[in-house]
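User: I've been going back and forth on whether these two constructs are worth ordering. Before I decide, could you fold them both?

Assistant: Sure. I'll take them in the order you sent them. The first construct and its structure tokens:
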Amino acid sequence: MAIFKDPINSLTFELPAGWANDLLYSTLTDFFFARWDRPEEMLVVHLRRACVAEDRSDDQWIEKIREEVGEKASLFDMDSPNGRVVAADFVSRQGMTQRVAFLRGAHVDIAVEQRNADMESPDPWKALSTAIKSAVSPANKPPTGDYGPVAFNKTIEKANKSFEKKDYAKVVAALEDAIKIGTFAWLVSLTSPGGSPEINAAVRVAQAMVHLGRFTAVPLHLRDAASILRRSLCSLEAAGKADAPEARELVKELKEILDSIQSELLEKKDPETSRDSAPIISIRERGFRSAQAAAVAFDAAEFKKASDFAAAAVEDFLFLLAYFRRGRSQQIPDEILKHLVDQGISDHEEQRDAIQKAREGLLFPALNLSLQVRYCCAMEKGEPEGASEAVELYLPLARRILDSSPGDTSIGLNLVLALFDGVGVIASRQDKEKLEEADRYLEEASQIVDSTGDKTCRDDGWVRNHKHQIERSLEALNKWLAAIRKGGDSSFESNLQSLHSKFETITERLRGKITPSEAVKSEEGKESGKYQE
């Protein structure tokens, strides 16, 4: 499962892999998600002030919920270790079913709604049930400490004085303290009766993150700041306050900071780039940079850093894929339309398909790389859940890429590696029930290798991480086999040994299909002298 944590710490919850947070329309208290491969299916998580006081009974709370959903809706119970949960189903005039679940909290309630669920899937409400079971808000904890604007300003002053003294460690510490103080002020504002959440507190956190990100050259801080600033703008717009006289200066300030962050990602000003398209282009560029940073950190064995960058890249790319799929109905720009017509593509739907394929073709390689890094890092750190999350996305992505480019050897072998990773996840979990599934993965991998004939490919692009992926999966198989031998389960040991042997056999055939790129030869030459002049 993928864990979503709000950068401003409003709440944390889990989702199945493949759900993308909408980075343009989420607010400070409403979080929108869509499936990257089925963007019409939506999940919305709402954080709101508790509808009854903490000392009221659950029955009184349920009565409030019943008033909200109406008499026609029937409430039913759901499970959560974090509080009482009730839910209701609604059916639209178009026959689409929507489910909404409500989680009671001491100070804030959490509501999760899932729209346009795929009712033909084995578990159509999996995203909602996963989110509601795992949702936690720190705002429900008792407030402690000093969290006012005075305390925040003092830490900023401390950071400035430390910078003047060139005491850079204290600069970082002061900015981190400012983020904590501002975050706590925001959480407290969520619970204060009679008022609305304090957007200024969220903005202060974002400003401190911007300073910290630029001072430390850690782009993930700027990424979090951009998220909070954009959501602050959306919150003002949703409340109808963006055009209010008292909010004009704040809105102007937010847009200026966002523009400055985006301009750092856009190396040159494109005169054809509108203000509306700049966020999309900057998110795309940010995703590419995060993917590259993940690869560099992984090569340097900085696995925590590599995993963080890869996770950020995956989130950006999934959002863009869902965004572009939802935007198929948008008008095609004249210059692109002319280019398509010149290529002989005149049918309207064919034109949209061509644009979609071009967009995905641009994003898929970097997303593929990021998922490979995520898998390898999780296996290095002994985190089978993280590895499983990566494979849940990597395997269907590799299949989709191969479907769009059949006959490409490197793309075919990329799917083989994804299947190997699937075996590695099953082995790392030592899941006996999925031994047959692992065997099917290897059978499919063997067929793909057979289909390539005498063709080979370089170990750049799609298969650049093949050695790491194979080694991590093989290590997991070795550990599982050793554990089974130690346990004395001779019948299962025979089956697992057969799987292990098949994995090694296909691995040898796969390695024979991949020849080192010039960059790899150069690195190997430095170590062994084999390719030195």
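The second construct, handled the same way:
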Amino acid sequence: MILYETWRRFKKVGWFLPGFILYAAFPPMCEVADALFALAPLMWLSRRGDARESAKRWFQSGMFFWVATLSWMPAIVKNGGPWPLVALGWGALAAYCAAYFAAYGWLSAEYWAWARRIPGGGWAVAARLFGLLVAEPVLWCGLELVRSRLFGGFAWNHLGTVPANAGFGSPAAIGGVYLLSAVVVLVNGTIAGMAERILAGIAGRSADYGMPKALRSLETVLVFVVLWWMYAAGGRAVDAARRKCDGEGSGRVKVAMVQRNFPCVFKGRETDPYQAYSNLLSRVSALKPDLVALPESAMCEFSPLDQQGAVRFAEWASAETGGAAILAGGTRYDEGRVFNSAALYTMPMAPASELPVYDKVHLVPFGEFIPGDKLIPALQKLAPVGSCTPGEPRLLRLAGGGSPQFGVAICFEDTDSALVRRFAATLGAQFLVFITNDSWFSRSCEANAHAWQSTARAIETGLPVVRVGNSGVTGTISPDGRRSWLCGRDGRPLVDRSGAMFDRISIPSREEAVRGLTPYASTGDFPLAAAFALLMGAVILVKYKGKQNRTKLLT
């Protein structure tokens, strides 16, 4: 009786445990191996076929995971965010993301309930293998894709982010971060299947769907065959991208990354910014960089980025580094519209009105705009940084031999695989530069968590990435996902202190950048979207037919 009561009470809270284990796989804990088994208990529950119970438990774990993994959001309170709105936004965003966990729990349980109704034999075996190898990964990755696009998209902490940052990210070159998520789901599903068979054996029941005894290990073997294929194909794609950057016609760009760590809101200058930048630029000036990258909002310290105050600073910084081009982010105003932008300042300096500028495309809802604020102007007063206008994707180009061109992603845009892929596949970028301002969430795990999102973009596109963060993580990422961060003496990314870093990155020729696309850059998310749509259609059809049959029986 005591054991039963203990078990009953544990069941009420025990389903939060998978969410905690999954949270531990991401920053700040970074126990990456946890992702391989964190979801197995929930997947075992889904295979019992009770959709309502499954959805409930998945939501519980998902809510714990998202509340914990977004625990950096309250840090914005100290930078002027009203705490009631911050708390409401934190809880609402966590619940919204947890709803995708619940949707997966319901859909997967519906699939397994249907599979259990198939009489034993070949079709039952096929349904089980299809569920493990196709249905579960496609359902999970399809829901991640929807979350990344719906209502502006929130593409934060996909499961595939973990293997991408653990050195096992090569499949992203053929299927994006979503294929890496499929790897995690496959491993968790295999563990759930093994546990299912063991527990069924203890209870004296069969969990093999009529599978002959000699073939009971088949599903585990097939999973490892599929994983081997993914990593073999991904490895070839990554090697091709590396050869593209090092082959004939390729070039090198000398890049300096300067992390000033200025406050997110300028209330007065505590230090002379020219002196601060002089100290940082002196560390890299002797190396004669081609490009000096400053973070998002850097020019807000001087003036809007297309005004004379910013131009004068850029001229000074360029002279300090021997004529390097200066890339810096800031605010731009045009005919009453506000843009979050990045400008490229090159010598001889162009007039402020003629600067090459990239305007941020993927704006942050409730941060850079309030949904509907263009129709209801009164809402614009609620946007923390003003109601911004989205721009159009475009590349910036360095002067000099070969005139290499690169794509810029500002802040949250480095999570948007579709946008970054467009820089490579449609516009022909030869490398990528990500600039961000993480000082809004300073002294939290946000900076490291944000940097994790960037790694898959390099593998997906097969292009090197330069990343500069204000109170963030600064460094470079190679096309195979290897990262070189600006670190302190303890070997950790230099987040809370200013610093500068220099690197020579290998870039493909313009022809190779267009011709030698990775499979993911060529096809994008269409295969996953099509597979998810077909599977959802099949689930709806089976559910509808089952409802019709039950209605006929009642009548």
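Notes on the second construct follow. The longest strand covers residues 325-334. The chain has a mean pLDDT of 87.
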